[in-house]
């Protein structure tokens, strides 16, 4: 297994290019299942998760090829309707094929994902939504089966919690249903908007993009089309926090700063300088005594659905707050077990207490974290350990970095380009 070795304490300078968003690429790749023909997707990141989704499409009968960041997928002849356990257990987003398969083939079978490192993560809202559209679902030997008698029909779907993949799945199921579907309390994440744009280009009729009420008028068929994946806002935010943590000044390009309203506000409150254009963000730490490394103010955060503070940046923000002056309360409201990084950060000198869904982070100030051997437990927890390692004195050794490779394209090379002393080595 690979490890990451970081020699910390080096401020980051330069510029870094952001890749396409993992959490937009996954539903857009799944959405190609809705129509036969040749689909073209641009700005697709080459990640473990996107490779898994493409592998799943292959199992279903699709053919695809990659040229740079462009992927062409031919779904003329679907030969399968089943997402096997071996794939779903490595990536729960595999459930995103349920909606399009039901819409196109009237039958789908997907292994029920188990719990994962950050929480139980059931898919009951997805299934309830499908049932509102006339799908019969049942659980057979660990697999969820969905069957539609005749054509799916429009209906009203209300989400108790605005589930991101739940909204995407029901949306994909509904675009070819007979009649009107209304999705209430829908997720408003930019990735959902990216999917709506693609479905729209394929010929779907959808109103309400960016709001919590989506209205879909079912159409008879959709056509293959060309779409572009939006920049990864979580990757962007991770680099923004990394610069705030190490000091220095970095311009992040090919991103969409308007997708990070909460993080931008919070970083400004910490004392970091941020300048944005339409597709770049420059993060700098104001000079203090000739060094680009300002003291950090502690700032509380509460994770919330978009446009609130993203849960996918909570761990990284905690790695920043451990070096601040004062106490920050970090309240995780989306997932019940997303503090796995805390024990690892404490091994590096962080002072954190967990009280239920809140972490009380008593800042120890800059320059006090010490490198240590630590273990990555999930994707975003791994990113938080990288940030802590970049800021700490001495050497940090992060094991199980395959988690990082699920969601960060060429992170080692991108960090090296900013002057970080980081290397991937065999354990
Ligand atoms: N929930 C249910 N039942 C459901 C669906 C969701 O109880 O049927 C609960 C979840 O357990 C959670 C909350 O509702 O407590 C919100 O979960 P959501 O469904 O929105 O999460 P998701 O769609 O499974 C996506 C991202 C996650 C991201 C969350 C929240 C993808 C592929 N994944 O997951 O990304 O954390 O939304 O924004 O889009 C990551 O990239 O590291 C990651 C975990």
Give a quick set of tags describing it.
427 residues; alpha/beta; four-stranded mixed sheet; 14 helices; 30% helix; elongated; binds uridine-diphosphate-2(N-acetylglucosaminyl) butyric acid
Description:
The structure is a single chain. By secondary structure, this protein is α/β, with parallel strands linked by helices. It is 30% helix and 26% strand. The protein contains 14 helices and 24 strands. It has helices at 22-31, 48-59, 85-88, 98-105, 124-132, 164-174, 190-201, 233-246, 261-270, 314-321, 340-347, 379-391, 402-405, 411-417; strands at residues 2-7, 12-17, 38-42, 63-67, 70-74, 82-83, 107-111, 135-140, 143-148, 156-158, 180-184, 205-207, 213-217, 226-228, 248-253, 273-276, 280-284, 301-302, 327-331, 351-355, 358-362, 373-375, 395-399, 421-426. The strands form six sheets. Strands 22-23-1-24 form a four-stranded mixed β-sheet, covered by helices on one side. A hairpin with a 2-residue loop joins strand 20 and strand 21 (358-362). Helix 1 runs parallel beside helix 7 and helix 8 packs parallel to helix 12 (379-391). The longest helix is centred in the middle third of the chain and has 14 residues, at 233-246. The protein is elongated and about 70 Å long. The mean pLDDT is 95. The structure holds uridine-diphosphate-2(N-acetylglucosaminyl) butyric acid. Residues 23, 26, 93, 119, 121-126, 161, 163-166, 191, 311-312, 334-335, 379-380, 407 line the site of uridine-diphosphate-2(N-acetylglucosaminyl) butyric acid.
């Amino acid at each position: 297994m690979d490890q990451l070795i970081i020699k910390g304490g080096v401020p980051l300078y330069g510029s870094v290019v952001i890749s396409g968003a993992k959490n937009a690429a996954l539903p857009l790749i799944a959405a190609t299942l809705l129509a036969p023909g040749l689909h073209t997707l641009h700005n697709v990141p080459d990640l473990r998760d996107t490779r898994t989704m493409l592998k799943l499409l292959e199992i279903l009968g699709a053919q695809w090829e990659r040229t740079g960041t462009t992927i062409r997928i031919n779904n003329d002849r679907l030969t399968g309707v089943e997402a096997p356990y071996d794939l779903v257990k490595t990536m729960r987003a595999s459930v995103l094929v349920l909606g399009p398969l039901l819409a196109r083939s009237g039958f789908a079978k997907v292994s029920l994902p188990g719990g994962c490192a950050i929480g139980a993560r059931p898919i009951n809202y997805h299934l309830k939504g499908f049932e509102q559209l006339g799908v019969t679902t049942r659980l057979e030997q660990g697999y969820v089966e969905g069957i539609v008698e005749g054509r799916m029909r429009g209906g009203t779907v209300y989400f108790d919690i605005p589930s991101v993949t739940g909204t995407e799945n029901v949306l994909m199921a509904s675009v070819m249903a007979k009649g009107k579907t209304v999705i209430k309390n829908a997720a408003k994440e930019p990735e959902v908007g990216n999917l709506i744009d693609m479905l729209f280009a394929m010929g779907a009729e959808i109103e309400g993009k960016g709001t919590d009420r989506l209205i879909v008028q079912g159409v008879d068929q959709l056509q293959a089309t060309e779409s572009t994946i939006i920049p990864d806002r979580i990757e962007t935010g991770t680099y923004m926090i990394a610069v705030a943590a190490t000091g220095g000044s970095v311009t992040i390009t090919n991103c969409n700063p308007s997708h990070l309203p909460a993080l931008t506000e919070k970083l400004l409150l910490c004392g970091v300088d941020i300048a944005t254009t339409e597709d770049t963000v420059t993060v700098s730490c104001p000079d203090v005594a000739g060094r680009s490394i300002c003291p950090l103010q502690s700032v509380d955060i509460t994770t919330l659905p978009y446009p609130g503070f993203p849960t996918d940046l909570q761990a990284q923000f905690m790695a920043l707050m451990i070096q601040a002056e004062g106490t920050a309360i970090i309240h995780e409201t989306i997932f019940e077990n997303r503090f796995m990084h805390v024990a690892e950060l404490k091994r590096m000198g962080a002072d954190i207490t967990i009280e239920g869904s809140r972490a009380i982070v008593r800042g120890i100030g800059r320059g006090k974290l010490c490198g240590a051997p630590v273990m990555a437990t999930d994707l975003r927890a791994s990113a938080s350990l990288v940030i802590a390692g970049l800021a700490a004195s001495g050497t940090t050794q992060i094991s199980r970095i395959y988690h990082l490779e699920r969601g960060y394209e060429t992170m080692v090379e991108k960090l090296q380009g900013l002057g970080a002393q980081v290397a991937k080595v065999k354990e």
